[in-house]
Amino acid sequence: MRKFAVSASLLLAACTVGPNYERPAAIVPTHYKALAGWVTAQPAAAISRGAWWTIFNDPTLDSLESQVIVSNQTIRADAAAYAQARALVDEARAGFYPTLSANTGITRASSGGGKVTGSNGSEFSTAPLTTTNYTLEGSGAWDIDLWGSIRRQVQSSVAAAQVSAADLANAELSEQAALASDYFQLRAADANEKLLQETIEAYRRSLQITENQFAAGTAARSDVLAAQVQLQNAQSQAIGTQVSRAEFEHAIAVLIGKPPADLTIPPGTLQAAVPVTPPGLPSTLLERRPDIAAAERTMAEENALIGVQVAAYYPTVDLSALFGYVGNPLGSLIRLSDRVWSLGAAATDPLFEGGARNAAVAAARATYDESVANYRETVLTAFQGVEDQLSSLQILAEQYQAQDAAVASATETVAITLNEYEAGTVAYTSVVLAQATQLADQESLLTIQQDRLLASVSLIENLGGGWSAGELPTASSLQQSNPLLP
Q1: Is there a smaller number of Cβ atoms within 10 Å at the N or the C end of the chain?
Q2: CA distance linking residue 445 with residue 400, whole number of Å
């Protein structure tokens, strides 16, 4: 039966109606604009396929990322959707085979009986006639795929399964990138708290200086109060950093499939190195992003469905057969005289549907055209994302250098102003202003460093995280999942 179905499919392949799929062209630039004249300071050699986050050399991040695929509920949902899509491929391929069914039954009937009047006028009773029939039948029906409707449906289901596989890969990448982003923001909160604790210690020393000056009669009480207010504000800011840190820790817990109460991440440092992944040639991006692969496979899915609708223009041919036995007693079911059988063929050709078929084909073509537009928009958005992050990394690197110089100048200004205050040559307001400027510059430097790391993560995500379209399941592998099907 398997060989027959395969042979029949090959013989009828030339009758497959509808357009054959060819990938439409997309707008692909020849180069990345943001790379012109830019040499990255710390480029990463390549993205590690499947474990791209290791380029940050952070064991804690590595440990957290390894739990995303296993426990993340969003990824589990996408994995279940992919399993469903694979099952739908088998369901579509089952249409190549006839359907077989068996029927067994027992029928017991009674007729006649009651009182009968004889010719002499006398009445007498007769017993009812009871018969029992046993039935054993087998039947089959086969929808001949003359015009390729089933083949096109299988093609569509295979492409849909590939879309689901790409969606799963995209979900994995998205959740991994979200965890990395949350992690670096958590580390930025740790760094900000450490900065504020160091600032608090510096402000305590300034308060001690003003108290000493006040005790010596060379400073006003207002200087002491100003120093106290500045210290208390810094203490309040340090406490406030715990709010955002806790939120990022809770978000990470959910990403790895744990209740927030079950995860505690010890404080750590915000790393200084910012790896920059080389983007490669723009043309390679089409094969590196799972969302582009999903959009491309969606076009193939919708293209095949056009063929399904076009095939409905043509007559359908159905074969049917029945074979069995009907008799009494039970032993008669093996007698040739009680054998029943039938063979049949039917062709159905719609003659008038009020334009419904034309409308269905037009709708299928419009849906395909929509998928083409979505594909091209996905490609353009992908290039935008890469350009955005390349520009961000370049600009932020320059901004970091400028801000680092500003921090150095602000630190020197604080030291000089504090000495001048102790010498009595400037008012304490000058010290307060210098210290406030220093803290603001230091916090800005931390924010820039955080943004650089986030841009690095986003660039990796926009480049596909080391994924390749070659990782999609092939059409042949999807159609070999059920060995009973051709």
Answers
A1: N
A2: 7
d(CA 480, CA 486): 8
Residues 297 and 176 in one domain: yes
Q: Which of 26, 15, 71 is nearest to 256 (CA)?
A: 71
What CATH number is associated with residue 446? 1.20.1600.10
pLDDT tens sequence across 60-72 = 999 999 999 888 8
CA dist 18 → 157, 161, 311, 330, 364 (Å): 16, 21, 7, 53, 11
Query: Are 342 and 425 part of one and the same domain?
Result: no
160 and 283 part of one domain: yes
CB 58 within 8 Å of CB 271:
yes
Residues 139 and 262 both lie in one domain:
no
Measured CA to CA, the distance from residue 98 to residue 76 in angstroms comes to: 35
Instruction: Kindly state whether residue 122 falls inside one of the protein's structural domains.
Output: no
- Write the burial class of residue 341 (CB in 10 Å: 0-12 exposed, 13-18 middle, 19+ buried): exposed
Same structural domain for residues 295 and 253?
Answer: yes
Q: How far apart are CA 59 and CA 64, in angstroms?
A: 9
- DSSP labels, 203-223: HHHHHHHHHHHHHTTSS-HHH
Mean per-residue pLDDT of the chain: 86
> What does the pLDDT read at residue 331?
56
Q: Are 341 and 332 a contacting pair, CB within 8 Å?
A: no
3-state secondary structure at position 462: helix
- Please check whether residues 430 and 336 belong to one and the same domain: no
CA distance 182 to 180: 5
Q: Is residue 9 part of a domain?
A: no
Amino acid (1-letter code) at residue 477: S
Q: What's the token pair of residue 313?
A: 């223009």
Residue 337 sits in a domain whose CATH number is 2.20.200.10
Count structural domains, the chain. Answer: 2
Do residues 397 and 452 both lie within one domain? yes
Residues of the chain under the 50 pLDDT cut: 1-14, 483-486
Q: How confident is the model over 238-249, as pLDDT tens digits?
A: 999 999 999 999
% the chain with pLDDT above 90: 55
pLDDT digits (tens, 9 = 90+) for 259-309: 999 999 999 999 999 998 888 889 999 999 999 999 999 999 999 999 999
368 alpha-carbon distance from chain centroid: 22
Domain boundary among 296, 324, 348: 348
d(CA 86, CA 145): 22
pLDDT at position 11 is 46
Print the domain residue range for 389: 15-97+147-312+357-479
Cis peptide before 473 (omega within 30 of 0): no
For 87, residues 6+ apart whose C-beta sits below 8 A from its C-beta are: none
The whole-number pLDDT of residue 126 equals 62
